[in-house]
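Help needed: design a sequence for this.
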């Protein structure tokens, strides 16, 4: 059996992570891998509870508290979902992970980045490959409007916040070229999928 691999998809709102994680999981299954698809915040019972608390917007968390809540959700997700799957040799496709905390809470909300990177460094596992879907305005907002379904706490934050988040993701990708591939998410769905599969083949399969 092929050994498990951990792939994360990152990027701002509406960049296409959910769409592309489904296509990627299907493509990996077609190649004969055992795959689980998961997401953050969430992906385990305790983490899903915290997701509700984080996204409903009823509390305007201070950045340090919000950072630690994301890491609390992630600890549950890692212990109950991600690590067991990797140990069983499965491929894990995860919609958001560590980089979202650095980009949203660190770059976006001004939480201490050294605290975030310390907690990332203490993690039990790092992704084998991270796809960073890069999308600017106004396309991101147009896609969120078209998707419908209401907006969460983060989607309601202003344009300057989302510009800082995008810059954060770009800097993360540039700083870690061995792990990260920056993909232009303004292309059509099929072309973005092709770019992702090229990265997966080059980095993990060849
Ligand atoms: N968060 C999360 C933090 O602040 N810190 C953290 O540590 C973590 C883990 C999660 C929120 O939590 C924050 C970040 C987020 O704000 P979420 O609901 O999971 O909330 O939010 P998103 O991950 O942003 O989900 P979205 O649905 O907003 O965006 P996606 O998944 O990137 O986009 P997707 O695939 O749903 O596509 C959106 C629409 O665009 C279309 C799709 O069909 C859909 O209608 N689309 C395209 N259209 C044209 N061309 C393409 N290439 C397209 N790709 C998709």
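Sure. Designed sequence:
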């Amino acid at each position: 059996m092929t050994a498990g691999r951990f792939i994360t998809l990152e990027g701002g709102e509406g960049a296409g992570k959910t769409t592309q994680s489904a296509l990627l999981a299907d493509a990996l299954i077609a190649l004969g891998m055992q795959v689980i698809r998961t997401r953050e915040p969430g992906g385990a019972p305790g983490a899903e509870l915290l997701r509700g608390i984080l996204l409903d917007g009823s509390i305007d968390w201070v950045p340090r508290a919000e950072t630690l809540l994301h890491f609390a959700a992630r600890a549950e997700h890692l212990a109950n979902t991600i690590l067991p799957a990797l140990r069983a040799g499965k491929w894990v496709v995860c919609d958001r992970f560590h980089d979202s905390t650095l980009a949203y809470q660190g770059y976006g909300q001004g939480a201490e980045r050294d605290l975030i990177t310390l907690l990332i460094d203490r993690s039990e596992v790092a992704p084998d490959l991270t796809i960073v879907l890069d999308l600017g305005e106004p396309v991101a907002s147009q896609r969120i409007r078209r998707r419908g379904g209401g907006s969460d706490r983060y989607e309601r934050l202003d344009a300057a916040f989302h510009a800082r988040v995008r810059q954060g993701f770009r800097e993360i990708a540039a700083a870690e070229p061995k792990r990260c591939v920056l993909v232009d998410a303004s292309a059509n769905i099929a072309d973005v999928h092709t770019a992702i599969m090229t990265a997966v083949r080059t980095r993990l399969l060849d």
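Residues 41 and 51 are 5 Å apart (CA to CA).
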